[in-house]
Design goal:
The protein is mainly α. It has a single domain (3-339), classed as ABC transporter involved in vitamin B12 uptake, BtuC (Orthogonal Bundle). Helix content is 80%, strand content 1%. The protein contains 17 helices and two strands. It has a two-stranded antiparallel sheet with strand order 1-2. Helix 14 (269-281) packs parallel to helix 17 (320-339). It is globular and about 65 Å long.
């Protein structure tokens, strides 16, 4: 990384890390009930239980999922050279939803038992493992169908992703029709994008599922800079285009699959945050990727805090996916007008 890129990265993180800290404090402080962080630190009940056993796991989960979706979105936008590319449009979220829904439907069957055994061996939840595999299968399918004359056509890949998402939605809805009511409720939670109260081992597994792909993608940021300019130019400069693309798709699929398995279809994070980051730090992916990860974490933590805060007025907590859509859609329009 050059000195100027390192300076921009340091400046971006100097702004975004405090923002993430403030978002985490807001997530720990705000909610349906009143709780004081100071009282929780002193062990005063019920503040300690509310802050550390209920809100803290959700803050950590929101940060992990937001980072995964954002860095995957930034990567896909670079690979496809299209600002509208994100995990949802590209089909990764749809593939992960199919995998998670099939895992729920297969529960109690021979296939479901084998999936549980494989997931336990890998230290993952069965739905999480199935979602990762579903996202990866979707990525490979979209890439295969998006090729023409031996090269990936970004506009064709995006079109295939949109069509695949429609197919995924229809398939998941069909699965709901044959599932037991309690399993249908679980699938609906995934589709709406809902943060739960996960245990420590699940949060640790999710952190690893996000951290490893993020490190791989950040290590390939220099190659992404060249790929964003065109495949022929990147190949002329010695970049193995196919290998780089495959590794990036696998890493992005792993991150998105883990995120979708835990929270469902949370939209706009992978679309809005990379745009906002590029607006302030420029197009260098050596800066954009780590900054997007931190920015995405802060964005989803704040969205979850807002969802819990809305309980006071609505009497019910809206899904965090609905909050990101309501906030993300106008914010994306604003960012597009700023770039125009």
């Amino acid at each position: 990384m050059t000195r100027s890129a390192a300076a921009r990265a340091a400046l971006a993180l100097a702004v975004l890390v405090p923002l993430l800290v403030l978002a985490a404090l807001a997530g720990l402080s705000l909610g349906a009930g009143n709780a004081s962080i100071a009282n929780a630190l002193r062990g005063v009940e019920p503040d300690a239980t509310l802050v550390f056993r209920l809100r803290l796991p959700r803050v950590l989960l929101a940060a992990e999922v937001g980072a995964a979706l954002s860095i995957a979105g930034a990567t896909l936008q670079a690979l496809l050279r299209n600002p509208l590319a994100d995990p949802f449009v590209f089909g990764l979220s749809g593939g992960a939803a199919i995998g998670a829904a099939l895992a729920v439907a297969a529960g109690g069957t021979v296939v479901g038992t084998a999936t549980v055994a494989a997931a336990s061996w890998a230290g993952l939840l069965p739905a999480q493992l199935s979602a990762v595999l579903g996202a990866l299968a979707a990525a490979l399918l979209v890439v295969a169908l998006g090729r023409s004359r031996g090269q990936l056509r970004p506009e064709r890949a995006l079109l295939v992703g949109v069509v695949f998402n429609s197919f995924a939605s229809a398939l998941v809805l069909s699965l709901e029709a044959i599932l037991a009511p309690e399993k249908t409720q679980a699938v609906l939670l995934w589709l709406s994008g809902t943060l739960g109260y996960e245990t420590g081992p699940v949060l640790s597994a999710a952190a690893v599922s996000v951290l490893l792909p993020a490190l791989v993608l950040t290590a390939l940021a220099g190659r992404l800079n060249l790929l964003a300019l065109g495949e022929e130019g990147a190949a002329a400069l010695g970049i193995d285009v196919e290998a780089t693309r495959l590794i990036c798709f696998i890493a992005s699929s792993a991150a998105v699959g883990a995120a979708v398995a835990l929270t469902g279809l949370v939209g706009f994070v992978g679309l809005v945050v990379p745009h906002a980051v590029r607006l302030f730090v420029g197009p260098d992916h050596r800066v954009v990727l780590p900054a997007s990860a931190v920015g995405g974490a802060a964005f989803l933590v704040l969205a979850d805090a807002a969802a819990r805060l809305l309980f006071r007025g609505l009497g019910a907590e809206p899904p965090v996916g609905a909050v990101t859509a309501v906030v993300g859609a106008p914010l994306f329009v604003f960012l597009l007008r700023r770039r125009a």
